[in-house]
Design a protein that fits this description.
With 116 residues, this protein is α+β, with helices and mostly antiparallel strands. 36% of the residues lie in helices and 37% in strands.
Length: 116
């Protein structure tokens, strides 16, 4: 959960909401074939649910209005992974900062798989 103050009052965002925002933004990026499970529990839960936008996303609050984001993704085979990663980082920072007002300190991308 992330709490921060604005001129209009106090804002509290749950990690699930931020994970969904990030998941939507990542799935919209070119070269992303999908999200990978972030841990064993995520793998088990993904078997039970059909489509989850927060799969492969972890949010780490670092301060009052600063977050760090970890992504586990699958990329399309044959694309430059560094270029895809730069695109994802740019999209995530812009989307999260515009929609929530939070500052993104860092985005860590783990490429777990490739799809043909």
């Amino acid at each position: 959960m992330v709490n921060y103050e604005t001129p209009l009052g106090k804002v509290t965002l749950s990690a699930e909401v931020l994970e969904t925002v990030v998941g939507l933004a990542v799935n919209d990026c070119f070269g992303v074939a999908g999200m990978a499970a972030r841990d064993t529990m995520d793998s088990i839960v993904s078997l039970l649910k059909k489509a989850r936008l927060d799969k492969g996303v972890k949010i780490f609050p670092m301060g009052d209005d600063i977050v760090s984001i970890e992504l586990h993704i699958m990329v399309v085979y044959g694309l430059n992974i560094a270029a895809v990663s730069r695109s994802i980082v740019s999209k995530i920072k812009y989307t999260v900062e515009e929609l929530t007002g939070l500052t993104v300190h860092e985005v860590t991308i783990c490429v777990d798989d490739m799809k043909a």
